[in-house]
Amino acid sequence: MTATRPEGLLACIEDDLTKVEERLVAETRSDIGEVRAISGHTLLSGGKRLRPAIALLAARCVGRSFDTHRAYAAAAAVELIHMATLMHDDVVDEAPERRGRPTANAVYGNSITILTGDFLLAKSIWLLSRDEENLNLVRLFADVTIAMAEGEVLQAAVARNWNLNLTTYEQVIERKTARFLAGCTEAGAYLGGGTEAETAAMRAFGHHLGIAFQIADDLLDFLGDPKQTGKPLGTDLKDGRVTLPLIHTLAHCDPATRAELLTTLERGQALTDSEIAALTAVIARLGGFEVARQEAEQRMERALAELNRFPESAYRDALIRLAGYVVARDR
């Protein structure tokens, strides 16, 4: 199975992505058969390669330089980091499937999957550090990985906190998602020879896009088609993750409804499909989904405003269309 890319959006960097895919296959090889098998299992699971695509588009959009060796290495490193975090997340979540396929931990076990995720993280650092000119990128993605770990820890720490406020929710999604996409676009601008102002604009674009991406992902947990998303509805509810639609609902319902909701939510992994459907109906009635959609769209608009600094090009157009895809996607 090859990467599943957003239809037609990435045609202008198709050749670049092919080279990155070749680099990923090469870098996930190992003399240890189990490492090679688990890495390949995740690599070929149908990912969209969204993060390397964003980095490449940012570099091409800036357009002053494009060292193919450095650009492809950075894009591959980005995807290796993403693969590692997916492996670790699936172990933490005890997820049996992702994108409709068995997760690495379901096939190979938790311990060996965690260790292979560590291998991929180390590989990403090694890949970047091979070129002495990439020290800034090593620092950038070290900071990104630290923030992602902090975000995941914070998310776990506040699970089942039904009084969670917007500030803490934003801290979670800013660390675990937005900083990664901001790092991708910042790296792309740097590799594209961007000025300080252009690099800052690309970083801001990635940041706002990341916030929109995570809110859209949170909506899919309630409203997505499991056949498209690859996971059952209500996974976040069962895991006690309090996201924007639920935060809004709990803050705006009457005391009796809130008490009823909390009683149901406390059932956690025992929640039935009918109970999840009932919770979803209450959230819809109280406007939780609409509030989340509006916030995602506003973040997308803020992201797009940052692109006005750059001249028209196929690459800028692709970033614009990709932002729209992120908010409206069904998986």
Automatic annotation (TrEMBL):
For this protein, the Enzyme Commission number is: 2.5.1.90
Q: Name one GO biological process term.
A: isoprenoid biosynthetic process
What family does the entry list?
A: Belongs to the FPP/GGPP synthase family.
| UniProt keyword annotation of Transferase present | yes
| Cofactor(s) named in the record | Mg(2+)
Which protein is depicted?
Answer: Octaprenyl-diphosphate synthase
- Name the Gene Ontology molecular function terms of this record: all-trans-octaprenyl-diphosphate synthase activity; metal ion binding
Keyword Iron-sulfur found:
no
Q: Which UniProt keywords apply?
A: Magnesium, Metal-binding, Transferase
Source species taxonomy? Bacteria, Bacillati, Armatimonadota, Armatimonadia, Armatimonadales
Pfam families in the cross-refs: polyprenyl_synt
